TrEMBL record, chain A:
<dbReference type="InterPro" id="IPR028082">
    <property type="entry name" value="Peripla_BP_I"/>
</dbReference>
<dbReference type="InterPro" id="IPR017777">
    <property type="entry name" value="ABC_urea-bd_UrtA"/>
</dbReference>
<feature type="signal peptide">
    <location>
        <begin position="1"/>
        <end position="30"/>
    </location>
</feature>
<dbReference type="Pfam" id="PF13433">
    <property type="entry name" value="Peripla_BP_5"/>
</dbReference>
<protein>
    <submittedName>
        <fullName>Amino acid/amide ABC transporter substrate-binding protein (HAAT family)</fullName>
    </submittedName>
</protein>
<keyword id="KW-0732">Signal</keyword>
TrEMBL record, chain B:
<feature type="transmembrane region" description="Helical">
    <location>
        <begin position="129"/>
        <end position="153"/>
    </location>
</feature>
<feature type="transmembrane region" description="Helical">
    <location>
        <begin position="160"/>
        <end position="178"/>
    </location>
</feature>
<feature type="transmembrane region" description="Helical">
    <location>
        <begin position="332"/>
        <end position="353"/>
    </location>
</feature>
<feature type="transmembrane region" description="Helical">
    <location>
        <begin position="14"/>
        <end position="34"/>
    </location>
</feature>
<feature type="transmembrane region" description="Helical">
    <location>
        <begin position="296"/>
        <end position="320"/>
    </location>
</feature>
<dbReference type="InterPro" id="IPR017778">
    <property type="entry name" value="ABC_transptr_urea_perm_UrtC"/>
</dbReference>
<dbReference type="GO" id="GO:0005886">
    <property type="term" value="C:plasma membrane"/>
</dbReference>
Automatic annotation (TrEMBL), chain C:
<keyword id="KW-1133">Transmembrane helix</keyword>
<feature type="transmembrane region" description="Helical">
    <location>
        <begin position="470"/>
        <end position="494"/>
    </location>
</feature>
<feature type="transmembrane region" description="Helical">
    <location>
        <begin position="335"/>
        <end position="353"/>
    </location>
</feature>
<feature type="transmembrane region" description="Helical">
    <location>
        <begin position="303"/>
        <end position="323"/>
    </location>
</feature>
<keyword id="KW-1003">Cell membrane</keyword>
<dbReference type="GO" id="GO:0006865">
    <property type="term" value="P:amino acid transport"/>
</dbReference>
<dbReference type="GO" id="GO:0022857">
    <property type="term" value="F:transmembrane transporter activity"/>
</dbReference>
Amino acid sequence: MTFTSSIGAKFCGALLAAVMSTTALSGAFAADDTIKVGVLHSLSGTMAISETTLKDVMLMLIDEQNKKGGLLGKKLEAVVVDPASDWPLFAEKARQLISQDKVAAVFGCWTSSSRKSVLPVFEELNSILFYPVQYEGEESSRNIFYTGAAPNQQAIPAVDYLAETEGVKRWVLEGTDYVYPQTTNKILKAYLMSKGVAESDIMINYTPFGFSDWQTEVSKIKAFGSAGKKTAVVSTINGDANVPFYKELGNQGIKAKDIPVVAFSVGEEELAGLDTKPLVGHLAAWNYFQSVDAPINAEFIKEWKAFTKNPKRVTNDPMEAAYIGFNAWVKAVEAAGTTKTDAVLDSIIGVSVPNLSGGYSTVMPNHHITKPVLIGEIQADGQFDIVQQTAQVVGDEWSDYLPDSKNLISDWRKPMSCGNFNVATGKCGGKGM
Amino acid sequence: MITGFILRALEGKIVAMIVVLVGIAILVPALNLLTPPDSAFHIPTYAMALFGKYLCYALLALALDLVWGYCGILSLGHGAFFALGGYAMGMYLMRQIGPRGVYGNPVLPDFMVFLNYKELPWFWYGMDWFVVAMAMVLLVPGLLAFVFGWFAFRSRVNGVYLSIITQAMTYALMLAFFRNDMGFGGNNGLTDFKDILGFQVQADGTRAVLFALSAIMLALCLLVASAITRSKFGKVLVGVRDAESRVRFLGFRVENIKLFTFVVSAMFAGIAGALFVPQVGIINPGEFAPANSIEIVVWTAVGGRGTLIGPIIGAVLVNAGKSFFTGAFPEFWLFALGGLFIAVTLFLPKGIVDTIQHGFRVRKAMKAAAEAEKGRVGTDAVNPSAAQAAE
Amino acid sequence: MLIRIISLIFIILSFAAPAFAQSGTDPKPLIDALAKADFAEAETLIGQIAATGDPKVVPALDAFSEGDLYFRKSDSAVFIGKTGDAGLELIDPLTGASAGPTSKSAVTKIRVNNNLRRVIDAAKGGLTLMSPDRGVRLAAADAVLASPSPENLALVEAALAKETDSEVKARMQEARAVSVLSSDRSVDEKRDAIKTIKSLGGRNALGILNSVSSSIDPSLKSDLDSAIGSIEAEQQLWDMVQNVWYGLSLGSVLLLAAIGLAITFGVMGIINMAHGEMVMLGAYSTFMVQEVIRTHAPGLFDWSLAIALPVAFLVTGAVGFVIERCVIRFLYGRPLETLLATWGVSLILQQTIRSIFGPTNQEVGNPSWMSGSFPVGGMTITWNRMWILVFSLTIFFTLLVVMKKSAYGLNMRAVTQNRRMASSMGIRTPWVDALTFALGSGIAGIAGVALSQIDNVSPNLGQSYIIDSFMVVVFGGVGNLWGTLVGALSLGVLNKFLEPSVGAVLGKILVLVLIILFIQKRPRGLFALKGRAVEA
């Protein structure tokens, strides 16, 4: 029984500490000498695996900003909550952060579902969310900044690279069955067909979340690749399912030399759980790799390792997106002289901050940012070797390759202030009424 | 006889609970709308939305209690009925967006536009009428429960087997709704709602009404459940729970009794889902997750099954705890939650409500101390459902 | 006739010409030029380096392919770099002489991509066809087989003339046939080549034949199509066999995941929601064992799984023992409460692991004997899947023997069938309960060792198996070990036969629906227990 009673003791202790910390928090609020920043990432549940890192990055960035003297003469204070990979809970926690904790801005979300869940809350309560993950596009909100990649900042350059450098003629679009892969694959299919690829040379295949038995899928890819044309796999497989997928590829002897796989959701963190020797040469497309050779990146990696007190911790693309988003917000607040939402929304457009690949990223009027696209090959040490780097690409929220969105643009500057302006009809609001 | 005693004791409590719920339904929206924000009595919209969500969960727990606490059917798939009701409501709300979607398509919801749907799938027809949608909120979960129960109870699937296939059902539905080809928006689900019956979903007034509706619906369902359990039928129901074979030998059609209860319970869950969706603003396949259904069981058990008001209290307490801990101790809240479940099963095996009632009973029955001496045997006679239901 | 022969010789010579003409040119400046070349220039350079015909360039090409080629920033001289204790050791690319250690910042790595690797492989194939080492020749023939080109044809034929080893010769014949098809040789020669490739069979042959089908001489079209047809027919047959194998392999994973649950849930009647976490603990034990081995005794790495097995069994068994003593023993006779309590336990275990190891995946390596695959006819079997199948069957039968033949097994069955009677007979029932739960947990831990080889090792590992495990046990019939075996394997095969036709997502949904329907037909699973235990 000692086991359970110690749990009970812990529980009581937790309750007591909770009461004390709430009073402490409200005390801090009353003093009003800090600027609060919300961190809305899942720390438990299925998405914790990816999102916990981003919470740590945010804490590090806030910590550093405070060391530099804070913002507008005040200290920044992080309010961390756990939406537990539960989408309605995301909306509840967002509401809590904005209306109860009165945060100036929120950094958070990973999956599109969680973003879609909190979007109405941010619009209703007029606050700001920085969303740091690559996504399918087809959205533009007045209150959200998308610092991850839109499809044209990741998928299309990757496909171009394979077609040009490796002479790929046949494509397997392999993805997890949810909205991001579905949309990306629709865009890619339209794009490839516009480049003259026959429909019979494109195979689209979907698997469930957390899929772990890849034997049939991999042998299907093998069969599709034996049609005598150079074949490549474009993978939009979601986090958890990647490890067994790559293990099966390696074991079935599919080398990058034969059928290269280019992935959009596999970064340094995912590779950390893998023996990458059989995977050397498979590709990933991101806007940042840890192996980027730039002084600012070396500095960032050093700080990250020191902050986490773990010399093995890796950095990845969503971390860079969080870094850019945070710095852009800081700069915009300094320019506006206040953290009030409307003022910051006005001042942030056009703000340029250094990104970690050695250049500058600018916040565009469509609330997406400019960044270069990097293509990297997996190395034996779990890092990527960058084989191509494009010039700055502007994130395109409404894809030019989907029939219903090709006429839409978004521009949140006054006087247009519209997320779905139709250039064909000249009206705001999609097709126009 | 003892059951009758408990029921008579509960009667007063149910009335009290209904009064409390109606009181909440009036008072909370009033305090939210009528008091100035800086008043000490003001209830912020945030808190009201949160509490509205708990009330929906409470209704869901009540639904589960009806089949589990009174009929001995441990359903690990009640989340599915809840989600289906939610989807029916979500479909109505999606259609109400009309041309205000990002693509401005007057008929198709946004996710259908960018996934290249040319026309509305057949099962979306008519969902733009509130009456049809509300009928679906009851009919879809009810029908699923009817078909599922019809086969399962006829084949005398019970105990763990039934629990596991209800889990299989919700798991299969989750996988199905995750598929984009199903026409329900894939894993993003249905979201970005604008209007309900012409009122803005986000407006404080609408929220207040939705909150009041949740409380009143819960009170109504509680009344219905209480009427069912207190009727003669209810006595047979408890009979089915405690000794199914005997009831069958007495000439009752056990499968019909179970089926009726199961369908009513599924409809309750559907109503809970329909009230839940406009208040939280999203419905997606995550609601079908088997873990969610297990959580419902936990709320019911914490509050005390077979008591009707227990599950309501359990659902509100556990969820309030979850809201608090995920904010206050994001890293450690699972320890607290896990510890709570273990503690409740070990120290409050009958749930909070029943344990309190038991305390009263013991005090009253001090004279019959000899019976109290028997301890375990005595409690088992009061509520032997635990052992029976699981097998 | 004579003219024809002469012209044939001429053609051969002209093809061979680029390969031999530059013999004797010094490859050194070509290799040094790699320092400043972009990918396209590097491709040309590799061709020129190979064309020197100097086998001394092979180590440099190898290093280039592996990404071990560097140039010194000071003078752009190219070296092979070996990572040693004192930073990077530079080696002359041609002579192999050491040029001393240097710091990583003084050199720059010469970048390589997939395309260059392919070019290097083909070039190396040509260069090493005459190597004295049999294995190298075999690999060279494979490389030529993978990259048909008229240049290689001349090299292969020259090598064939000198080859004595029959296996190597056969492989070279195939390599030659492949190159013949893409050359402008006579129709007859090509027809022979098609025959050779047809007898080679398999997906690669199909790929080669398909690739030339658009450009082939019309008179050969029918030969080609029939060859493609016959390989495809054969391949389809193998696909069936392969599906069965995949099904059994998936079934063995399900069996592994479910077998511990068959004891804790099936035999003891505890609705053990923490079962998945026991599997996870087993996987983390493997990770810990490998970490220790990596830092202290890297030589033992191939034995890491063998060492991890008892460790995982003991760790999870001990955790199971503690859980039984602290929580579950108060809940016998109240099985539903076990669902709640073990659910709580599972949350706590997950969060504990998350707090200690972090939420990210941990790397568990595959020992060499579990990596790669071997061909069986027209299909490939991966070693890890095969060992997992063998392993899960071994555990199953060991467990069966323990349950049916040992005294402990007898006690256990007695206790679960009639606790009071067993107790009256002098069996220490609490002790047996604790040991049984520990056994079930320990077996889940062993399963975790195996599953760590094919899946993520993260705190969520257990969650992904728990539902499937319950399905298997219930489908097979609670309380019957054979039911679990048959249930797991048949669900696996069913799933894998549905998957190719309806896709993975719909396949899984259909399996679940079939389980629901099956339970209607047989409410107590595949192998229902008979007798009074049913009513208990």
